[in-house]
Amino acid sequence: MSALSLRGIGAAFGEHVVLADVSFDVAPGEIVSLVGASGSGKSTLLALLTGALRPSAGEIHHGGVLLDPAAPGRERPFAYMPQRDVLLPWRRILDNAGIGLEVAGVPRREARERAGALFGPFGLAGTEHRYPRQLSGGMRQRVSFLRTVVQGKPVLLLDEPFGALDAITRDELQRWLLDIWEAHGWSVLLITHDIREAVRLSDRVLVLASDAGGIAGEVGVPRSLPRGDGFLLDPRAPQLEARLHGLLRAASGPERDSAGPGSAGPRAQSLVR
Ligand SMILES: Nc1ncnc2c1ncn2[C@@H]1O[C@H](COP(=O)(O)OP(=O)(O)OP(=O)(O)O)[C@@H](O)[C@H]1O
């Protein structure tokens, strides 16, 4: 039974159809990345999952159960981590980490206890009583991730969680995420612009077509691919990245295809998975 299943999802802003016939699954314990050109509708898709937007068509299922499209975010089985850390500057780190629980109605004391229990395993011990401005960008993203997972939701929706970080911190946090994911085994849908990151972190990478073309293709990443120090040395990694770049070019429409505008370049829908 899928942790997350989208069937024929569509979305539009007025006359502008952004998503059409988007269907895919995330299995329990699987990390699935979604890549796509800017404007292809990745953030819109997350907004449909969190309940910020209503789909114009299609169904969302969790564990085989149809989600009520009117259900508010707090009643959904998804925890969402936005790209920016959005920590409240006037709240100490421990209280920031528990805020998602508090919003869900958990008393502050219990929220502190539950969030506090994760500070050690998440490499944040000693930061509990600091303020966000006293932490580095990487540490703040850890807090933001902690705040997301402590809600105990079975599916994590991560919107470019490392997009704003420098390359070294990003590498460090990718390893960190994989390590703690090993211990917890969440089901994850990850949005990223970074193809290398998608390959490194995922079991499967989906390519979202522009112009409401649905899922244009996917690339599976073997579990045997090393994700730590060996990642960059394994020849399969650049091969997978190259396949994804090719899919992305084709899925971004003829004007962005290397064949140039007006050519009969391959369109996303015709790609063989
Ligand atoms: N609130 C809105 N009202 C009208 N149009 C919108 C709104 N939000 C997004 N759009 C349009 O929907 C399309 C998809 O936007 P979306 O932000 O989902 O793309 P994206 O793939 O996440 O892009 P990026 O990678 O640049 O973040 C774009 O054409 C955008 O202009």
TrEMBL record:
Residues 252-273 are annotated as: Disordered. It holds the Pfam family ABC_tran. Keywords: ATP-binding, Nucleotide-binding, Transport. It comes from the Bacteria. One of its GO terms (molecular function) is ATP hydrolysis activity. InterPro entries: AAA+_ATPase, ABC_transporter-like_ATP-bd, ABC_transporter-like_CS, ABC_transporter_ATP-bind, P-loop_NTPase. Residues 4-235 form the ABC transporter domain. SMART domains: AAA. This is ABC-type nitrate/sulfonate/bicarbonate transport system ATPase subunit. It comes from Leucobacter luti.
